[in-house]
Write a structure and sequence with these properties.
This is TolC family protein. The chain is α+β, with helices and mostly antiparallel strands. It contains eight helices and four strands. It has a domain of about 280 residues: Up-down Bundle (Outer membrane efflux proteins (OEP)).
């Protein structure tokens, strides 16, 4: 199979290296660096770092300044009167300014759960970008090989035009001597013009492919003139490494972290507090003077009943995780179906390539005989051009199939995620 593929590979590789090649690997790397969404990963990392810093502040002392001024219609009074004893009354206008300092001691793992959830979301967000980058890889591969196919068309058309012009020069001598009709030369001239039209179409096709490749990679078209046909890729039984499958796993990890965080909300929370203030009344409610005061202690919070909110939330997360698992299995099934189709295409191209060289050789022999007969005046230009066109078509088909075969093997690896 490779007896006529490898010479073409070596020829294209050697020519490209001489001019400064732009291989497919370089196109992939350039497109990845140039892709705007890659900066989204950096933004995700920075946002996560800021969120983690905020989460860590949950373990630091929290200070709060509170102030209050009130007037109430009634106050507590002691309905007792004693001789020679003055019992002060509580003022109806009250003022209070306090500084509360709290220190978390135990939060049931809520802070740790928030941290793990943010890290899981970071991985999922980064992997979404990898999915987009893999699609970009497929797009770059397709455009790159389209340019190579157009290049093969250009080479074949150049060869055909050169052949027609050479034959026209020989017949022109017969026209000048009066032994050949001028219409025969005109037919060759018309075919040369037709070949130049086809050549221009191929050149424009390649330029369009290079312009698209330049847009995707951030390179100039002059840097990509020397494209290199890669070697065929292996099509073994390696496991799937698609970024979508990793994304599904990370999304399940996000749901798992959310479930753990939800579980932590049912646990008791313990904190220490200190409060210092100034107001009227202070801690002595029977005093009508402004006074300083302070107090400290421990505070326990434990939600004993919340109408089964956590249980319902866990059920919701479980169903979401089941849905993601179903998506993962469906994607795996579809990808394996694509691999079977791609393997069939590789086999079809491989079988066709085994006949291409023989077809080109036979078409070349027929064309050479037709050219000799045309030179000897025993064949018409029309019949010669038919054989020349058949040879050119066979050459283009053979070269195109060689490129398509390499593309199919590489696309097989891209489908698998490599």
């Amino acid at each position: 199979m490779f007896r006529f593929l490898m010479p073409l590979l070596l020829l294209l590789s050697g020519s490209a290296l001489a001019q400064g090649s732009f291989p497919l690997d370089s196109a992939w790397a350039s497109a990845r660096r140039h892709y705007p969404l890659l900066r989204q990963q950096e933004a995700t990392d920075r946002a996560t770092a800021l969120q983690l810093r905020n989460i860590r502040t949950g373990y630091l002392p929290q200070a709060e300044l509170n102030g209050k001024a009130t007037y109430q219609s009634d106050v507590v009074q002691i309905p007792i009167k004693l001789p020679n004893v003055s019992i002060p009354s509580i003022p109806k206008d009250q003022y209070n300014l306090s500084l509360d300092v709290r220190q978390l001691i135990y939060d049931g793992g809520a802070t740790t759960g928030q941290r793990d959830l943010q890290l899981a979301r970071q991985q999922a967000d980064r992997q979404k970008v990898e999915v987009d980058l893999h699609q970009l890889r497929q797009q770059v591969t397709q455009v790159y090989f389209n340019a190579l196919i157009w290049d093969a068309h250009i080479t074949a058309r150049h060869e055909m035009i050169a052949e027609v012009k050479q034959r026209r020069q020989k017949l022109q001598a017969g026209v000048d001597n009066g032994t050949v009709l001028a219409s025969q030369v005109d037919m060759l001239q018309a075919e040369a013009l037709k070949g130049e039209q086809q050549l221009e179409e191929a050149i424009n096709g390649k330029q369009a492919a290079l312009a698209t490749l330049a847009l995707l990679t951030g390179k100039t078209e002059s840097e990509m003139n020397a494209l290199v046909l890669p070697a065929p890729a292996a099509t073994g039984n390696a496991p799937l490494q698609r970024p979508e499958l990793a994304l599904f796993r990370f999304q399940q990890e996000v749901l798992g972290s959310q479930a753990k965080l939800t579980e932590s909300l049912t646990r008791p929370k313990l904190s220490a507090f200190v409060q210092g203030g100034y107001g009227r009344p202070g801690l002595n409610l029977l005093s009508d003077k402004f006074d300083f005061y302070y107090m400290g202690g421990l505070r326990l919070n434990w939600t004993l009943w919340n109408w089964r909110y956590q249980r319902t939330e866990r059920a919701v997360l479980h169903e979401q995780e089941t849905g993601i698992q179903a998506q993962s299995e469906a994607f795996d099934l579809q990808t394996r179906a694509k691999l079977l189709q791609q393997q069939a295409e590789i086999s079809t191209l491989q079988t066709a390539m085994e006949k291409d060289k023989e077809i080109v050789e036979l078409r070349g022999k027929v064309k050479n005989v037709s050219a000799a007969q045309l030179d000897n005046g025993v064949m018409t230009v029309h019949d010669y051009l038919t054989d020349l066109y058949a040879e050119t078509s066979a050459v283009i088909a053979g070269r195109t199939r060689e490129i398509q075969f390499v593309y199919a093997t590489i696309q097989y690896q891209v489908i698998k995620g490599y």
